[in-house]
Amino acid sequence: MEGIFRTAARAAAAWAALGAMGVILPAAAQDRPLVIARNLEINSLDPHRAFCDTCQIYLSATYQGLVKLAADDRSVEPSLATEWSANENQTEFTFKLDPKAVFSDGSPVEAKDVKWTFERLKNLQGDPSFMMKGVTAIETPDDKTVIVKMESPNSEFIGILAAPYTGIINSEVASSNGASAGDDAATADKGETWFLANSAGSGPYVLDTYRPDDELRFRANDKFWGTAPAIKEIVIDQSADAVSQAQMLQSGAADIAMQVDPDTAETIASPDLTIETVPSYNYIYVSFSPGAEGNQTPLDLEVRQALAYAIDYQGAIDFTVGGKGALQASPIPNGFPGTEDLPMPEENLDKAKELLASKNLQDGFTVDATVASINVYGVDLALLMQKLQQDLSRINVTLNIQPVASAVWRQQIANPGIPFSARFYAPDYYGSAQYVQFFGMLPGSWWERNASGQGKVDLVNQKEVDLLQQALAASGDDVARLYREIALEMINDRIIVPVVSPNLILAYRNEVAGVRYSACCNLPLAELSIK
Amino acid sequence: MSILSSRSASSRFVWPEWATLPLVGGGVVILAWIIIGLTIPWWTPYDPTNLAGMRFQPPGAEHWLGTDALGRDVLTRTLYGVRHSFPIAVFVIGCAVVIGCTLGAIAGYVGGWLDSVIMRFVDITLSFPPILLAMAVTASLGPGLGNAAIAMVIVWWPIYARLMRAQVLSVRSREHVEAAVASGASRSRVLIKHILPLCWSPIIVNATMDFGQVVLLAASLSFIGLGAVPPTPEWGQMISEGAIQFYRWWIALGPGLAILSVVLASNFLGDGLRDYLDPRAS
Predict the structure, then answer these.
(1) How confident is the model at residue B9 (pLDDT cuts 50, 70, 90)?
(2) Which CATH class is domain A63-184?
(3) A299 and chain B in contact, CB less than 8 A
(4) Which of A199, A450, B129, B264 has its CA 20 to 30 A from that of B14?
(5) Residue A30: its pLDDT value, please?
């Protein structure tokens, strides 16, 4: 009898030990760094100069906006602001800050930080500065109240504040390290170098180290005022192409691979890995720059239309992502306001030839096509260009493809300009205005400046300017109707021609939980955990 | 009787002494590539830059080396690759020999400060790793096979300058040269008629061996995006495309074997030529 008790006691002790291990093991698992394989492709870590997909991941992990995009990728939720309101004509927005919110150095998030951040974002004139376009004044009646005034109605302003680039910066820390928010910030600001080694936000993580083309390392923010992230340390490891990312995943060197393309995904067969394919708002487009210096043949509207008609869009989807993608009508991606029932891009060789003949170009011509030699969303841009080269050769147009580094592309697109190219875009928040402001032919928009050769050619579409103003002041069904009209105008501009909206492949080890695609932030790091 | 005499004639055939296995083997491979390069448009069924079938088809009866990401026939592209690699190698070696040998001969024969200036310049150029220097020059000129060729000439000429200078220095003290000088021959005549003809053997051997190395360097530059631009069927460019399709091994196989065959053949040919031209060395 005693033996039975002794055995039972030993069994109970063993169960207790195992149970304890069961509790301890996941905790230990959370302590090891989680590794993400990804092509870093970072242009800056300064929140107001950065403009890249990895930047979205970084900024949304280390900074917090006044609001954040909900998991449905459409609505917004409170973040630093607990409540907000707008006046009737959407020109004045009032925010109440959460009194509990603190930065990573423990200092409270105050109204002055919001004012400084928004002013710097606007005045720095960086790539994301368009998000603060129209802001005329920011008032701070008390430490926890911010009032933003606009020169004209902007019904998307709350949505814009979910973009990672609008994350609130600790103004005292940043100012003491060279950052400036004044009217002359574009020349006076010296903060970029400091931001490459430090973060100054209130997000769940802080920047640990950044080594360009090597790794971006986060550690959990000890003073985070919200729910602490499950994983203490996350590393985004530089891995340029889909195959090396897949190999890292299969070998256990990485827990998540972010840019595995469908062709490579087909070759991965491991019971330890999860491969999910989900639709995304990301897309690849081709661009025409009639103002580029290298144009041997003027890329006027008829020529651009002809080239757009000569593209085999379905073939491009098949060749670049193995058919795992969707056609997209306009620079506003499928699913965003105003994109329902838009006419999809059409391949029409007869029409293309007819248009070229009307310009006496039936014998063809050569176009310089510089492209960044990178793989984004599973699409190899140089490979896409070769497909387009085949397509355009059918109307005797020769693409002179020049693959270059992405940083070189960024320089060349501004000066001297690139007549024909391919690029990618991911949304920063849920709202169509960002696409009109970035891709539309509005005076001074990113693509108006670059496509026109900094104003050498007049490409401004006044109708888009007027319609955008109306859309930002509209509400209800009118919003979608007006954005639809803008989308049609942008299609007719033929400056930006979307080619493929690729499905996103999420590849990760089975023990990783919380992997999801976010429209604003790509991969929300704070939601990750190890099972 | 006639049959018997003919048999005895064939049995008396002696393989020429110069026709060593490396020389003949290497020469045959290089010659085969030249013939392929010259005649390929007449007999290949596919276009090297256009769709030939379904993408990513593994090797089979229709496509012996499969197809790539754009459905192009890998074998066709591999064979067409010789039309880019060989002219570049000939151009680079030709220019390097002309420039290097001219400067090397002047430096070796004239001597003095001119020798010092030329050879220090050679030393500086040779102090850079060849691939690094070629990358730097190509990056500054811009991608493209033409610019890659110019970069490789800059990398290669000092080798020939140093080699030729050493040859000239060893020959110029020979008796027949001194006799020519004593008989009043001009300096240029002495150099061209009495020294240079005795200097060519190692240059020819080196140039033959370097042929494969130039093909390899050109492919390396294309592999890293500094040489041929898409859709040129250049071997390095093709291997680069195959590298991002790691699990579709056949895409890089053809160009890889092509480079291997050319480098090996040029080394064998160079070895054979050295044995023939300079029997003492062997």
Answers:
(1) low
(2) alpha beta
(3) no
(4) B264
(5) 61
Q: Which CATH number fits domain A34-39+204-279+504-530: 3.40.190.10, 3.40.50.1220, 3.40.630.30, 3.40.50.1360?
A: 3.40.190.10
Is-contact A163 A70, C-beta < 8 A? no
Tokens of residue B136, six digits: 């730097």
Residue B95 lies inside a defined structural domain of this protein: yes
Distance in Å, alpha carbon of B225 to nearest chain A alpha carbon: 7
The CATH number linked to B242 is: 1.10.3720.10
The shortest CB-CB distance from B245 to any of A263, A385, A401 is to A263
pLDDT at A29 (0 to 100): 57
Domain-located, residue B224: yes
Give the per-residue pLDDT at B224: 87
Determine the 3-state secondary structure of A112 from DSSP.
Answer: helix
Does some domain include residue B106?
Answer: yes
Contacts of B71 in chain A (CB under 8 A): 319
SS (H, E, C) chain B: CHHHHHHHHHHCCCCCCCCCHHHHHHHHHHHHHHHHHHHHHHHCCCCCCCCCCCCCCCCCCCCCCCECCCCCEHHHHHHHHHHHHHHHHHHHHHHHHHHHHHHHHHHHHHCHHHHHHHHHHHHHHHHCCHHHHHHHHHHHHCCCHHHHHHHHHHHHHHHHHHHHHHHHHHHCCCHHHHHHHHCCCCHHHHHHHHHHHHCHHHHHHHHHHHHHHHHHHHHHHHHCCCCCCCCCCCHHHHHHHHHCCCCCCHHHHHHHHHHHHHHHHHHHHHHHHHHHHCCCCC
Record: contact B230-A404, CB cut-off 8 A: no
Task: Give the residue numbers spanning the domain of B70.
Answer: 21-277
A163-214 confidence digits (pLDDT tens):
999 999 999 999 999 999 999 999 999 999 999 999 999 999 999 999 998 9
Residues of chain B contacting A264 with CB distance shorter than 8 Å: 245, 247
- The pair of structure tokens assigned to A262 is 């469908």
Structural domain spans, chain A: 34-39+204-279+504-530, 63-184, 283-502
Binary contact (B246, A382; C-beta < 8 A): no
Q: How many domains does chain B have?
A: 1
Q: What would the pLDDT profile of A437-449 be if each residue is shown by its tens digit?
A: 999 999 999 999 9
| Residue A241 touches chain B, beta carbons under 8 Å | yes
- Does the beta carbon of A237 lie under 8 angstroms from any beta carbon of chain B? no
Full-model pTM: 0.79
- For residue A245, the chain B residue with the least C-alpha distance is B244
Q: For chains A and B, what is the number of CB pairs under 8 angstroms?
A: 52
Residues of B in contact with A247 (CB under 8 A): 246
Sort out which chain B residues have CB atoms less than 8 A from A387's CB and list them.
70
Give domain status of residue B132, yes or no: yes
